[in-house]
Amino acid sequence: MLYWLLKRVLVGPALRTVFRPTVEGLEHIPDAGPAILAINHLSYSDWLFVPLVVERRVTFVAKSEYFTTPGVKGRLQKGFFSGTGQVPIDRTSGSAAAGALATGKRILAAGELFGIFPEGTRSPDGRLYKGKTGIARLALESGVPVIPVALMDTDTVAPPGEKFGRYAQPHVRFGAPLDFSRFDGMGSDRFVLRSITDEIMYELMLLSGQEYVDEYAASRKKSVGERARSLGEGAVQVAKEIQGSATAALEDAAARLPRKGSDKDGKDIKNNDAPAGEAADVTADVEDIAVHDAAHDAVTIDDGETSVSVERVESVERVESITTDGTDGDAHGARDAG
Predict the structure, then answer these.
(1) What residues contact 165, with CB distance under 8 A and at least 6 apart?
(2) What is the spatial distance between Cα 35 and Cα 108, in angstroms, rounded to a whole number?
(3) Which of 115, 141, 220, 299 has its CA 20 to 30 A from that of 272?
């Protein structure tokens, strides 16, 4: 089978050689018979490292789209996911959750090990999040034990949202099987389902040492995304305000610069519109006042009274500092918009 070829020849040996994963508690995995592996979810590489350290085949569910994409790419994708122990969710049951439950029951009925991530999605920050009750329903309907599995440092190897991480030696820790036969016949009671799920998550917390968050990971990701969008919109508004302030400050500074002219005899004279004494303190040539820093793509204008520094960042001008000393007192301001 492709699963064993990938595990023992093509992929497994390379992963073991490079990452040298460590493991403890393997004695809790039965030599035969069905069991649910409840795994914390830190990284998209989690489904690789658990089967790597278990002698038996471990099966996970995956989106059916991974197995139905047409063309050469689709066939390669299907072969890879099938070969690494993943099966498509059975959508005939309706929702994805119901499909995963139906698929899990079929795998367990065949006497296999079924891996499931109770959090439903990867942790956004390395903490352990509230589990979904599907695992409790599956445990009660199948009547098989649940083995908690804690993964550590897989999020260093393959961080969420990034293509590459840093080298780390992942650790896999298996806990003692949990028996929920005392709740037989109570699968429709949502309080029982929540109690079972919380017990599983508590064991995962003890095994992994993660901080527990009583919130769904998907909800946290959504709230973080909404906040990021809000901050982004605010940053754009601030950038516009700063750009407007920069333009006004530059125009004001330029207006106060002394200008050269000629009298009727052709002699150069300084601009008499400048305040008394100012013309004598300010260099007349703009080249001496406006200094362009090519290394930082910045422009600084200093006329002795107002200093303005403007930096261009991705087509948005950012004012690093505006300092004005006026007759009514000192006013200093600095704003930054990324």
Answers:
(1) 155, 156, 157, 158, 159
(2) 7
(3) 299
